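Risk register update: the risk of archive-format incompatibility is retired. Evidence:
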Amino acid sequence: MMSIINPSGKDIFSVTTEWCGRPLTLEVNRVGFRTTASVVARYGDTVVLGTAMVGSRPVELDYFPLSIDYEEKFYAAGKISGSRFIKREGRPSDEAILIGRLIDRPIRPLFPKGYRQEVQVVSSVLSMDPSFRPDMVAMVAASAALSLTGTPFDGPVAGLRIGRVNGEFKAFLTPEERAASDLDLVVAGIENGITMVEAGAHEVSEQVIIDAM
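Archived output:
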């Protein structure tokens, strides 16, 4: 663990661990000084900023006002959006909306029933490694930020997208491996349990799904 001071006077903490054969680094308070909590997750050339904001008091609603968004900007891949005349970023893509929901599903059940403070979480991809999808890194960044807010969040959560190529299970598949994979399985949860499973496959057996998990 490494600690330095940012311009706002807060300590910047950095923790590195190995995840699927590569170093995963989480930095706290590097940016987003006005958020309740912020975490920068670095994995390969992928960098994701996870920010969390929590309302100061409960609201009178009959549901938990949790909002989780995933942002994947063109600049993260070194591209410019739009035509030669329109350079601003457009609305979120369908894939970005679905990834936001993918991050939401394992996190939402970990708040206590009846909790009514507003919580907003945003995972913004700042840099994208073209060799793998950034969605699982975004989930880690969002969960890590939530864990630092002081809310009654029973996390953190981590997830993994698993494929199967030539009978071998693999995580963080390249685009070529994804095209050849007969399984697309996402498993997410906490240290002692699974909170979300999502899968698509080409006629694989139940045992294959169990083995992948």
